[in-house]
Amino acid sequence: MEIENTTGLPRLNEPAPQFDAPTTQGRKTLKDYEGKWLVLFSHPADFTPVCTTEFMAFAKAADQFAELNTELLGLSIDSHYSHIAWVRNIEEKFGVTIPFPIIADLSMEVAHSFGMVHPGASDTSAVRATFVIDPQGVLRAMLYYPMTNGRSVDEILRLVQSLQTSTEHGVATPENWQPGDQVIVPPPATAEEAAKRAQSDEYDCTDWYFCKKAV
Predict the structure, then answer these.
(1) Which tens digits make up the pLDDT trace of 68-101?
(2) Among 43, 148, 195, 201, which has the highest number of CB atoms less than 10 A from its own CB?
(3) Among candidates 112, 141, 143, which has minimal Cα distance to 128?
C-alpha cells in the first residue's frame, strides 16, 4: 500500500522535486538530467571557507563522476552574479576550475522543495544537503551535514558507485563497500532455497541469511 507523503518533503525511492532555476551555466531543470545520475548538493553561502573546500573537491572529482554517467549540480541561496564571482575567485586564488553549474536560489524555492533549509541551523541558508537522483528522476539517497563540517566527496562518489551496483545487480553492499569487493545477496525466501544456497559454489556464505558474491 502506498503511503501518502503529507510532509511535502522529498522521500527516498520517490520522484525528486522538479525544478527550473537559473545557474552559472544557464537555466537548468531536472528533466535536463534524464538518462543520467545527478548529485545535487547545497551549501550555506558563497565565499565561505568550508564551502570553498567542498567545491574544489567536487571539481577535482568531476571526471570520476562523469565516468559514472553522473552530473554535478550545486546550489546556494545567493545570486548567480555572486556564484560567478566566487567561481572566478576560486580559479584565481586556488587554481581550481569549477566545471559544474550552480543554482542561484534567491527565492529559496528549490531549497524548500528539497528540504535544504533547517530553521534550527539557519532560516536564510541551505544546510550542507546532498541528493543522489537516478536516471529516471527518482531520489535514491540524501545526506545532511551541519554548517560547521564539510562533506567527504570521496564518500559521495563511493555512494554513487554502490547505488549503481545495487541497481544493476539487485544486491546490497556492506559497510564501506568499494568497487571490486563482494556484495551481499538478498536472503533466501524459503527453507529449500536456503539449503540450495548453502551448497552452491556461487556464494560465500557465513550463514543461510548472510551470503556474499562477486559481481
Answers:
(1) 999 999 998 889 899 999 999 999 999 999 999 9
(2) 43
(3) 143
pTM value? 0.91
CATH of residue 204's domain is: 3.30.1020.10
Question: Do 72 and 141 fall within a single domain?
Answer: yes
Q: Quick one: pLDDT at residue 98?
A: 97
Q: Are 103 and 22 in contact (CB under 8 A)?
A: yes
Is residue 205 among the annotated active site residues? no
Tally of CB atoms within 10 A around 36: 14
The residue written with cell numbers 544537503 in the block is 129
- Identify the active-site residue in 21, 51, 77, 102: 51
Whether residue 67 lies inside any domain: the answer is: yes
The residue written with cell numbers 564571482 in the block is 85
Query: What span, in angstroms and rounded, lies between the C-alpha atoms of 125 and 73?
Result: 17
In angstroms, the CA 139 to CA 152 distance is: 20
